[in-house]
Amino acid sequence: MILIQAASYVVRDADRVERGVDVLIEGDRIVQVGRVDVRRAAGANVLDGRGRAVVPGFVNAHTHLYQSMLKGRRDDLPLVEWCEEVTFPFVRRVLDRAWHGGETEIGRLWSAVAAIEMVRSGITTFVDMDMDLEGVISTWLDVGIRGVAAMELVDRWVPDDLMLPLERTKEDVLRLIETWHRVPKESPLVTVFLGPSAPFTSSDELLRFIQEQAGAHDLGIQTHVSETAWEVEQSVRTTGRTPLAFLDSIGFLSRPITAAHCVHLTEEEIELAARRGVAAIYNPKSNMKLGSGIAPIVALQRAGATVALGTDGAASNDLLDPFEEMRAAALLQKVAAQDPTALGARDAFRFATEGGARACRIDAGTIDPGRLADVALIQLGGAHLFRLTDEIVPSLVYCARADDVESVVINGRLVMKEREILTVDERSLLAEAKRVGERYA
Amino acid sequence: MILIQAASYVVRDADRVERGVDVLIEGDRIVQVGRVDVRRAAGANVLDGRGRAVVPGFVNAHTHLYQSMLKGRRDDLPLVEWCEEVTFPFVRRVLDRAWHGGETEIGRLWSAVAAIEMVRSGITTFVDMDMDLEGVISTWLDVGIRGVAAMELVDRWVPDDLMLPLERTKEDVLRLIETWHRVPKESPLVTVFLGPSAPFTSSDELLRFIQEQAGAHDLGIQTHVSETAWEVEQSVRTTGRTPLAFLDSIGFLSRPITAAHCVHLTEEEIELAARRGVAAIYNPKSNMKLGSGIAPIVALQRAGATVALGTDGAASNDLLDPFEEMRAAALLQKVAAQDPTALGARDAFRFATEGGARACRIDAGTIDPGRLADVALIQLGGAHLFRLTDEIVPSLVYCARADDVESVVINGRLVMKEREILTVDERSLLAEAKRVGERYA
């Protein structure tokens, strides 16, 4: 049992804030918000909420954890050169040793580095799109963070040695589902999604297989959609349709998918996304860094589509930081529209909490009794957070920083307390990640 | 004397990095970079540089400190409504009591809050554009931060009760120069600039007075130039010229000025800026938040203009954070050009250090013997800074956060050590700022 006592602010969601109340967590759930009778909370782990804000844990709805290995490597390159000179050679060595030598240590360790960065930033759930997930998921359980394993599937476009034969891919998918989907069953920390990398990297056969499996096991799907103008042209040339319209034409949107980026959607596709229940994952910093463009988030929101927020991988961000991402989310729409009211702090906060939870299909994203206990406690005492207003959501979105996150509860477990990770030995884990990583550099 | 020992990285400027060397500071200057003989440094205050980067202190070349009072108040409003509903009423109360009642406490206290936020973020010099500076400058000396007092001067457009009569303004300017310009004389922490708020808020008489005084006392000048499209139209309508071209036409660019924003410069004005030695102050986050537009920084840089970085006031940012500002500086140009190579980490770092020092006319901005000792020490151990590369400038620009700044030296004085402000009692100062601020809320 965890009792957060007398929190200065409990941000139940972007529009509901309470002041001076307690939050009680029992098992994996939030059980009470209000004045909690201390006798009910006897023996609870007590956290002081004074001078702090309680918020729903942030959801990073699109990332690639392995890219933490590539952080800061040869920045400021065009996408294709960056892939060819930086990413592919490194990833090739990593995948080669994983697929052919069974060496999964580097993936496991750097996945943990990314998971720790996220916990330290108040992220409690993420979607990891990765080709090799078997080795890394156990690390998420060690750290105690909630992860969606969106297995990245390709059978076209990518260099041959970065793909497995389709038959092997299918076997891996089935094994992943069997081993890891909804683990543990009663209170899942791990959920499996299927992740066709993008429409243009998937054969019809692969897409059909994904649909069958998603239907059979009730799996979510994540794919990259219209991240770059190039990809849209490519789709029109080869299929006669823009990417989301193409997916709809083959029936792929009969299950609601999560679509990362959505930068170059057409007006028709924006309506289509809303109609088909597509969750658009907005990755503002990555779209800026790669020069991909500005996603039509205001229009998507107006059309009624779910919007969630993602950092994308560390190679194109380079942080896994929900505060900077919320700021970028609002600021980029404002400047694109040349209108400071285009998208506000509350919208950005909603994308990073409720929107993300919906995209991940988890029962979290607000502070309400009955919801999963994914919660962050934010220290408000820093000079940069000092202010003469009680409006807390704009202050959190525009002023708070990852380092203000003091404690984090995930699935009812206290994972970080007063900036100390309680679940793993952070220092030795980072050192080990460096030692092993340097073997591949 | 201060000795930084065995720094993992000494970032002398954006293009010169040394590893494993010492930095020796004596009086107000950097005196040695390299292996320092410990006998030479006997009695020095020793800082451990292992696992850390030494960087030139960051320069915030355009801000309004008093706006820290307005942080987080009614965000997401259009500029004019925001001015009328939020800023003007509050500022009116503050200025009224300052000008007519001699009450300058709130300005002094919130200026200190902003100064502390900046020191904690690695900023060692700032330009403060403010109408009432008399009361606040002594605070900068208390905190020990280097400040440029750019007295904001208006005699048009602004509501009458927010302006002083021109004769009184002139008297205030002369007194400010006499009291505060280059104080202390031998190693100035305070420099006075003159700050005509914008061309459209200044009469010809005011601009003439400013030019005379700048010439007589060798003062720098800062003004807002072409921040909004509205302001450019206004200038064309009333003067027949765009703002920078207008200033040139009346001879105002005969002394090199610093021009905040420069969002809507014409191609001719970009050439003009370079030719006249105008320093363009780029405020990417503020320009985004207010929906003002995207400054043509790539073109300004190509033309040879000096570019510096500013946060603008906390009301439109809402942080005074050089790391987020460097990231936004690069990312915004990349997405605007749809080209990830448009502006890189080294450019952004240069704007925030050398460019800023040049704009402020101070002998700092690089780590070199003989320069003013304005230096920040950055802790590199956090999970978010963990990486497999030795390229430190991109890592600092894209991954480091304000909270990684561990110690700060300004003018040879250790102002922050291991996250503790040594010069003032931060906690009681913040409490006092809140107490006094609430009287005006």
Strand order of the largest sheet of chain A: 8-9-10-11-12-13-14-15
- Return Rg of chain A in Å: 21 Å
Shape summary of chain A: globular
- CATH class division of the largest domain in chain A: Alpha Beta
Largest interface, with counts of residues having CB < 8 Å to the other chain, equals: A-B, 72 and 72 residues
Structural class of chain A: alpha/beta
Percent helix range of chain A: 25-40%
What's the CATH topology name of the largest domain in chain A? TIM Barrel
Q: How many discrete domains of chain A?
A: 2
Quaternary state reads homodimer
Largest sheet of chain A: 8 strands, parallel
Continuous helix count of chain A: 14
CATH superfamily of the largest domain in chain A: Metal-dependent hydrolases
Strand percentage of chain A: 15-25%
User: How confident is the prediction overall: mean pLDDT of chain A?
Assistant: 94
State the low-pLDDT regions of chain A, or none.
none
What's the SSE blueprint?
The structure is a homodimer of 441-residue chains.
Chain A: E1 2-7, E2 9-13, E3 16-18, E4 21-26, E5 29-34, E6 45-48, E7 52-56, E8 58-63, H1 79-101, H2 105-120, E9 123-130, H3 134-143, E10 146-153, H4 166-180, E11 190-196, H5 204-217, E12 220-225, H6 229-239, H7 243-249, E13 258-261, H8 267-275, E14 279-282, H9 284-289, H10 297-303, E15 306-309, H11 322-337, H12 345-360, E16 375-379, H13 392-398, E17 405-410, E18 413-417, E19 420-421, H14 426-438
Parallel strand pairs in A: 1-6, 2-7, 8-9, 9-10, 10-11, 11-12, 12-13, 13-14, 14-15
Antiparallel strand pairs in A: 1-4, 2-3, 4-5, 7-16, 16-17, 17-18, 18-19
Helix pairs in contact in A: 2-3, 2-14, 4-5, 11-12, 12-13
